[in-house]
């Protein structure tokens, strides 16, 4: 029997077995071969924040499996009129949604929904907290290139403090015995970040952090978050941009990842983004497979 | 000898730290006053009614230095009638009401309004008036006029007085009138956007955290201003070990500083926020285990003067929202004694006399409430009778407060209020 999964809220509430079975199912999913696995199911995409990849890949994932989708966004909906999150979700559930995929700017918003709404909730990103489908697709991507996660050195570079991707990845990779190194300026990588999971350390010097790395994961840097900080954009680029030279500090077979959207010239250069070690577009492809697996499991159609 | 308006509390164990009494005694109340405390049986036949307090502790009525009764202006959360109903149920015979109402209580008119019999209060209400006009932190209110209208202290609770000169002037003015300045110590520019304590839990949850320094830096400044002015600063809901250390050091130097702790800060820590439960969101936030341990230590060594609830009722729809958008605050009047007994008396061996001191005699002293916080002859007939061994479970749906925002729903406790007597009248029987 498959481990039951009612809602997908964060990595922490997933058992190791559940993570493994989502990944196993994702490997078997083929976005190019539509099926009717979720025929008749209705998936609502309740997105309070803008998104390209996550929204589109959940939508493609649902439709590839035969489900119908609808998108609810603040503009041109009752959210604009001041309807609360919980009332909007109750409404969407009453309209007949079988699952609600939610992205929200507030950490923990999906937990509020899971507590009060009868319908399964899939977290597509909540504030700075979690982005579990991203961590799962990243694990799928890493395991396509590395035999196992145990013992890997994964360097996560950039604005860790504001990043739900960093938190989700650290929790998942730690569970499987990887060593995770957060690297970035102090405002982005506070020392407390190392407390998030076993095997996580911080290293302000990227050139040291990268030595022996199996995976280099760059995070998006929002220029507005540098405002008022001790570091300028030019300093950030000088100290933390992923360049071909820096990639040479990692293991020769290291892979480069980025959850997107990438800003060329800030977090990384075009040479590495488009280079042989880059897995950035593979991550996007794996996003559809992973979300197919998540929806299949949540909607009870996993075989 | 018999009097229609008299009550004999018989066979109880009287704990009255202010009089040094800690033994089985009978207490006779008449015409709103304590008229005699004597050995069991000695007062037999002198009252029209007798309350059998066998097996119970008979204490001077509890005084909560820190409640939000929400009137005027926010009656959807609480009214003075419902809030004092919850107070009576929790054994509090007096509550000190914070001024952050709508409008802010910065005038003698509102101060008097809150005490009007028309409010239907079940227990004594002592207003704390705003220290600055509109609690905007810029211009001091008229402390003398507010005191004449009944205010027992001044505070901009929730909006700390950050300006050094305003705080200094407030302490000076309050010193002349012998009233305390009550400070919610929070360097608010440092806590913008914060919803919980700063620590591993806030990092994991992706929620901006309030540092201990944001509290302790204000307390450190305030004790220096109290030292310089001779004024009395009362630190509301102290929650960090650093701030408590500052209070302890200042007390040793003879500075006039007092501090209260809440029941929730000695019971819960930041990890109890769990999956973003908004009933665990309050300000100051639940802190680390080290801070909780320091508060207990402060209760044991005397650095802490009082237990106050910071009873902060909010309507369901103000809490059933995203954690970061939810209102700060929890209710607390009905669980305070049970927590004091369960956590302090049972778990940390804090004597009952000390607990009564924290809930009654010290609060009366801090706010200069004459004739309260004691059962000495001539005192107001405010009495709290409780059974420290009685087990019970708190059911928030049965709360007398208008709001149900408590983290303690369903908790089992030891220590239950048996009767609350205000001015000689039984206002609650448990």
Count of strand segments of chain B = 18
Q: In angstroms, what separates the terminal alpha carbons of chain A?
A: 9 Å
Measured by DSSP, the beta-strand proportion of chain B falls in 15-25%
What are the segments of chain A in which pLDDT stays under 50 over at least 5 consecutive residues?
A: none
Count of DSSP helices of chain B? 11
How much helix, percentage-wise, in residues of chain A?
A: 25-40%
List the helices and strands and how they pair.
The complex is a heterodimer of chains A (303) and B (430).
Chain A (H helix, E strand, L loop, with lengths): L15 H13 L13 E6 L5 H12 L3 E5 L12 H10 L4 E6 L4 H8 L4 E6 L5 H14 L7 E5 L6 H12 L3 E5 L16 E3 L3 H4 L5 E4 L4 H4 L6 H8 L3 H4 L7 E3 L12 H4 L6 H19 L5
Parallel strand pairs in A: 1-2, 1-3, 3-4, 5-6, 5-8, 6-7, 8-9
Helix pairs in contact in A: 1-5, 1-12, 2-12, 3-4, 5-6, 5-12
Chain B lengths: L5 E11 L4 E10 L2 E6 L10 E4 L4 E4 L1 E6 L12 H10 L2 E6 L10 H8 L8 E6 L13 H6 L4 E3 L8 H14 L3 E3 L12 E2 L2 H6 L3 E2 L1 H18 L3 E3 L5 H12 L4 E5 L27 H13 L4 E2 L8 H4 L16 H12 L4 H15 L16 E11 L18 E11 L2 E5 L1
Parallel strand pairs in B: 1-4, 1-5, 6-7, 7-8, 8-9, 9-10, 10-13, 11-12, 13-14, 14-15
Antiparallel strand pairs in B: 1-2, 2-3, 5-16, 16-17, 17-18
Please describe what this structure looks like.
Chain A is of the alpha/beta class and 303 residues long. Chain A is 37% helix and 14% strand. Chain A has two domains: 16-131 and 284-298, Aspartate/ornithine carbamoyltransferase (Rossmann fold, 3-Layer(aba) Sandwich), CATH 3.40.50.1370; 133-279, Aspartate/ornithine carbamoyltransferase (Rossmann fold, 3-Layer(aba) Sandwich), CATH 3.40.50. Chain A is globular and about 55 Å long. Chain B is α/β, with parallel strands linked by helices. Chain B folds into two domains: 6-58 and 380-429, Urease, subunit C, domain 1 (Roll); 61-366, TIM Barrel. Chain B is built from eleven helices and 18 strands. Chain B has helices at 80-89, 108-115, 143-148, 164-177, 200-205, 212-229, 241-252, 289-301, 316-319, 336-347, 352-366, and strands at 6-16, 21-30, 33-38, 49-52, 57-60, 62-67, 92-97, 124-129, 153-155, 181-183, 196-197, 209-210, 233-235, 257-261, 306-307, 383-393, 412-422, 425-429. In chain B, strands 1, 2, 3, 4, 5, 16, 17 and 18 form an eight-stranded mixed β-sheet that branches. In chain B, strands 6-7-8-9-10-13-14-15 form an eight-stranded parallel β-sheet. The longest helix of chain B has 18 residues, at 212-229. Chain A binds chain B through residues 9, 84-86, 104, 106-109, 111-112, 115-116, 126-130, 161, 164, 167, 190, 192-193, 195-196, and chain B through 198-200, 203-207, 275-276, 317, 320-325.
């Amino acid at each position: 029997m498959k481990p039951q999964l009612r809602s997908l809220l964060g990595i922490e509430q997933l058992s190791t077995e559940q993570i493994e079975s989502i990944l196993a199912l994702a490997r078997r999913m083929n976005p190019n071969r539509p099926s009717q696995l979720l025929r008749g199911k209705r998936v609502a995409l309740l997105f309070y924040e803008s998104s390209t990849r996550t929204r589109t890949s959940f939508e493609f994932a649902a439709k590839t499996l035969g489900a119908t989708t609808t998108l609810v966004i603040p503009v041109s909906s009752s959210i604009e009129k001041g309807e609360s999150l919980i009332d909007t979700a109750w409404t969407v559930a009453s309209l007949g949604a079988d699952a609600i995929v939610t992205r929200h700017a507030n950490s923990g918003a999906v937990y509020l929904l899971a507590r009060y709404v009868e319908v399964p909730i899939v977290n597509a990103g909540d504030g700075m907290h979690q982005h579990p489908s991203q961590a799962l697709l990243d694990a799928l991507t890493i395991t396509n290139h590395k035999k196992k996660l145990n013992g890997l050195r994964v360097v996560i570079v950039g604005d860790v403090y504001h990043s739900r991707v960093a938190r989700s990845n650290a929790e998942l990779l730690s569970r499987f015995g990887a060593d995770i190194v957060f690297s970035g300026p102090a405002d982005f990588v506070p020392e407390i970040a190392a407390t998030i999971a076993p095997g996580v350390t911080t290293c302000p010097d990227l050139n040291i952090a990268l030595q022996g790395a199996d995976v280099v994961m760059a995070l998006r840097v929002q220029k507005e978050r540098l405002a008022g900080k001790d570091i300028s954009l030019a300093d950030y680029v000088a100290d933390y941009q992923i360049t071909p030279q820096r990639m040479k500090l990692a293991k020769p077979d290291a892979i480069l990842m980025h959850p997107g959207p990438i800003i060329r010239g800030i977090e990384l250069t075009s040479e590495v983004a488009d280079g042989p070690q880059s897995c950035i577009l593979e991550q996007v492809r794996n996003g559809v497979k992973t979300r197919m697996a998540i929806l299949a499991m949540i909607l009870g159609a996993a075989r | 000898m018999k009097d229609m308006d008299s009550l004999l509390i018989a066979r109880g164990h009287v704990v009255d730290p202010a009089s040094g009494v800690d033994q089985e005694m009978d207490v006779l109340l008449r015409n709103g006053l304590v008229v005699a405390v004597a050995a069991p049986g000695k007062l037999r036949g002198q009252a029209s009614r007798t309350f059998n307090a066998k097996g119970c502790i008979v204490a001077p009525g509890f005084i909560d230095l820190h409640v939000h009764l929400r009137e005027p202006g926010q009656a959807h959360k609480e009214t003075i009638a419902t809030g004092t109903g919850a107070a009576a149920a929790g054994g509090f015979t007096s509550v000190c009401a914070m001024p952050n109402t709508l409008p802010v209580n910065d005038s003698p008119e509102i101060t008097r309004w809150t005490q009007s019999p028309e409010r239907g209060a079940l227990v004594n209400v002592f207003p704390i008036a705003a220290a600055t006009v509109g609690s905007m932190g810029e211009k001091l209110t008229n402390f003398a006029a507010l005191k004449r209208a009944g205010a027992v202290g001044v505070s901009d609770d929730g909006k700390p007085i950050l300006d050094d000169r305003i705080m200094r002037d407030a302490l000076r003015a309050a010193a002349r009138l012998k009233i305390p300045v009550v400070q919610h110590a929070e360097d608010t520019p440092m806590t913008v956007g914060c919803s919980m304590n700063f620590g591993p839990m806030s990092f994991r949850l992706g929620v901006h955290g309030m540092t201990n320094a944001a509290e302790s830096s204000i307390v450190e400044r305030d004790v220096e201003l109290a030292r310089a002015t001779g004024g009395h600063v009362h630190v509301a809901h102290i929650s960090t070990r650093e701030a408590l250390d500052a209070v302890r050091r200042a007390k040793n130097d003879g500075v006039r500083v007092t501090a209260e702790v809440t029941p929730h800060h000695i019971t819960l820590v930041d990890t109890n926020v769990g999956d973003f439960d908004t009933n665990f969101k309050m300000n100051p936030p639940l802190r680390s285990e080290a801070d909780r341990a320091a508060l207990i230590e402060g209760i044991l060594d005397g650095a802490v003067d009082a237990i106050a609830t910071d009873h902060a009722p909010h309507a369901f729809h103000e809490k059933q929202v995203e954690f970061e958008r939810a209102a700060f605050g929890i209710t607390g009047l009905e669980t305070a004694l049970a927590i004091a007994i369960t956590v302090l008396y049972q778990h940390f061996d804090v004597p009952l006399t000390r607990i009564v001191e924290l809930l009654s005699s010290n609060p009366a002293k801090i706010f200069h409430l004459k004739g309260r916080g004691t059962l000495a002859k001539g005192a107001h007939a405010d009495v709290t009778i409780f059974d420290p061994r009685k087990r019970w479970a708190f059911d928030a749906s049965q709360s007398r407060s208008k709001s149900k925002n408590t983290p303690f729903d369903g908790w089992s406790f030891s220590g239950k209020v048996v009767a609350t007597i205000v001015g000689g009248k039984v206002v609650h029987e448990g």
